[in-house]
C-alpha cells in the first residue's frame, strides 16, 4: 500500500491562553506564521535599556528566532549584546574569535562547511544553552542560508500514540557523536571526565513559555536511556524527522552585518553547506541556560 505524508493542518505560535500583543519599541516582520521574524528599529551598537530588552526578549520567546539586518557591530558589542541574557559559555572544541566567549566559523576553499545537520547547540552539556547569537561577517554571493525548526510545533504535530510513548523518556546527549569523530579513543575518554554524557528529557518543558518541545537532535543525541538499541534508533529516527517538516521551519538569507538570535530550548537549526568553495565567515556567542526538565 502506498503511504503518503500530509503536512500539519494547524500550527500554534503562542502558548495556549496567550494572545498577540503590540510592540512599542521595535517592529516585527514575520518570516512564517510560527517561527522567525525580522526586527526593525533597533541599533545593537547601543546598550539595551530595560524596556527595549523586555520587548526583544518577548519577541525571542514568541518567534523562537529573531533577525536583525545591517548591524555594524564589532566582536565586543556582539559579546555584550548576548551577555545581556546571561553568562556566556566558552566552547571547548570550536575555534575562538577575538574573545574566548565568541566562536568563529571560517569556511572557504580550504575549509568546507559541515554544520548541515539539524541540532540544538551544546545539548551535550549537563546545562545546555538558552540561546545563541550569530553574526555574519562575510557571506557568499549565493547559498549559505540557515534554517530553523520550531520544536514546539514539531512536538504538537506528533501522533497522540507517539506522544504517549515518549512521555517521561530520557535521552543521552554526547559530544563524542560529533566532535569525538576527529579524536582518538584516548582523547575522547579523557574529555569525557570533564564533559560526561548528559541525560535530558526527550520532551522538555520550556521554562518561560511552558510549551512542550522535542529535545533530541541528530548530531548529539546518541540513544534513549534504558531502551533496546534497535528500538531506540527506530524511535529517534521518527523524532528526528520532525525537524525536517517545512511547515515547522523558517529560512534566512544572510547579508553582511545580519544577526540571528535563537532560542536553543525551542528550536533546532541547520546551516546549508551549498556554497563551497566560496568564503563564509560567522561568529557566535552562546548563552548558558538551565538544565532541561
Q: Which regions are unreliable across 5 or more consecutive residues at pLDDT < 50?
A: none
What's the helix count? Answer: 6
What is the second-level CATH architecture?
4-Layer Sandwich
Percent of sequence in beta strands: 25-35%
CATH topology: Double-stranded beta-helix
Helix/strand class: alpha+beta
Assembly classification: single chain
Structure in a nutshell:
With 293 residues, the protein is an alpha+beta fold. Helix content is 20%, strand content 25%.
Question: What would you say this structure looks like, in words?
Answer:
This protein has helices spanning 50-63, 75-83, 151-156, 160-166, 185-194, 229-240; strands at 27-30, 37-40, 65-68, 102-107, 129-138, 146-150, 170-173, 198-201, 203-205, 212-214, 221-224, 249-252, 259-263, 267-271, 280-288. It is α+β, with helices and mostly antiparallel strands and 293 residues long. A 7-stranded mixed beta sheet has the order 1-2-3-13-5-15-4, covered by helices on one side. The mean pLDDT is 95.
Per-chain topology:
Elements: E1 27-30, E2 37-40, H1 50-63, E3 65-68, H2 75-83, E4 102-107, E5 129-138, E6 146-150, H3 151-156, H4 160-166, E7 170-173, H5 185-194, E8 198-201, E9 203-205, E10 212-214, E11 221-224, H6 229-240, E12 249-252, E13 259-263, E14 267-271, E15 280-288
Parallel strand pairs: 2-3
Antiparallel strand pairs: 1-2, 3-13, 4-15, 5-13, 5-15, 6-12, 6-14, 7-8, 7-11, 9-10
Task: Give descriptors for this structure.
293 residues; alpha+beta; Double-stranded beta-helix; seven-stranded mixed beta sheet; three-stranded antiparallel beta sheet; globular
Amino acid at each position: 500500500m502506498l503511504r503518503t505524508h500530509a503536512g500539519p493542518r494547524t500550527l500554534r505560535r503562542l502558548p495556549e491562553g496567550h494572545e498577540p500583543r503590540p510592540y512599542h519599541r521595535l517592529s516585527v516582520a514575520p518570516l512564517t506564521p510560527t517561527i522567525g521574524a525580522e526586527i526593525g528599529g533597533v541599533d545593537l551598537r547601543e546598550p539595551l535599556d530595560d524596556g527595549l530588552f523586555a520587548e526583544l526578549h518577548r519577541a525571542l520567546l514568541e518567534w523562537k528566532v529573531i533577525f536583525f539586518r545591517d548591524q555594524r557591530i564589532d566582536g565586543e558589542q556582539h559579546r555584550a549584546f548576548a551577555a545581556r541574557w546571561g553568562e556566556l559559555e566558552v566552547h571547548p572544541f570550536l575555534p575562538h574569535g577575538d574573545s574566548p566567549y565568541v566562536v568563529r566559523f571560517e569556511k572557504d576553499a580550504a575549509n568546507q562547511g559541515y554544520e548541515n545537520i539539524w541540532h540544538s547547540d551544546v545539548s551535550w552539556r549537563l546545562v545546555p544553552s538558552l540561546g545563541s547569537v550569530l553574526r555574519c561577517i562575510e557571506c557568499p554571493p549565493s547559498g549559505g542560508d540557515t534554517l530553523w525548526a520550531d520544536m514546539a510545533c514539531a512536538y504538537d504535530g506528533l501522533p497522540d500514540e507517539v506522544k504517549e510513548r515518549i512521555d517521561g523518556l530520557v535521552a543521552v546527549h554526547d559530544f563524542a557523536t560529533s566532535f569525538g569523530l576527529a579524536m582518538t579513543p584516548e582523547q575522547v575518554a579523557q574529555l569525557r571526565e570533564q564533559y560526561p554524557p548528559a541525560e535530558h528529557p526527550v520532551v522538555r518543558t520550556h521554562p518561560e513559555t511552558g510549551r512542550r518541545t522535542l529535545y533530541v537532535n541528530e548530531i548529539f543525541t546518541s540513544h534513549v536511556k534504558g531502551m533496546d538499541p534497535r528500538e531506540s534508533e527506530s524511535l529517534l529516527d521518527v523524532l528526528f524527522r520532525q525537524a525536517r517538516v517545512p511547515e515547522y521551519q523558517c529560512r534566512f538569507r544572510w547579508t553582511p552585518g545580519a544577526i540571528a538570535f535563537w532560542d536553543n530550548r525551542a528550536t533546532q537549526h541547520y546551516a546549508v553547506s551549498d556554497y563551497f568553495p566560496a568564503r563564509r565567515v560567522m561568529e557566535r556567542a552562546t548563552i548558558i541556560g538551565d538544565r532541561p526538565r
